[in-house]
Write a structure and sequence with these properties.
globular; 3-stranded antiparallel β-sheet; binds zinc ion
Amino acid sequence: MNFVAAQGMVLGATAYSEADKIVQLYTLQLGRVRAIVKGIRKPKSKLASSIDLFTESTFSLHKKASGSLYVLGQAKILNGYADLKKEFLQITTLQVLAEMVSQATPEGEPHSEIYVLLKETLGALEKEPKSNELLLMAFALKLMEFLGYPLELEICAECGETLEKKKVYLIPHRGGALCELCQGSGSVRFQVTPMGLEVLKKLRRTLVNRVHVLKLKPHFSRQLLFTVIGYLERTFEKSFKTLEYYSKVLPLERE
Ligand SMILES: [Zn+2]
């Protein structure tokens, strides 16, 4: 048996058997891992509150030499992020954030910079809940960069011309934006306006706790968010279940 104490946050939990659950954690030391929590579905389980979405704890984990599933023994809560779990807007935002991390990060590969980014994003969301879409976009752009898939947004990936003030097309398998002349046809593309491109560039270089200074109109913000997540989905060849849910539970008002 290998024992390890890891600081981590909960990305989700699913029922496993009558009494157990499997939780997905993003940890500082081990990256994304899955762990079985025994007896958690029984009343009075001591671990129940520590497996809430994004609750940060120090977890005692152990596993056999073979297999990828850990067993979660104990948890000591460091931060429950209780304020983020009161409003529907924030809860839904947390769900999208959790899906991004669980779909894009490889299992068992630590990235301390992603862990830090997650904590900063949660902190910023607590302070600026209405900037949730900006925060999700900034998180996605920075996440892709940390995972080795930075988006090219300055020059066309085909002709090398500057993209400044141009309508561009984000093409996942080309690693970023192409100009209108080079976009070709056939592959999946996401059209972005010159203003959208400027916002994405700003979001990528701005610290998450400062992104709220940008103010976007609701429809523009929503469209750009779906573009960024669509690009992320295609880059990692995953589909995000939370997006449809997000539009359903947080409909846009008419402008
Ligand atoms: Zn071009």
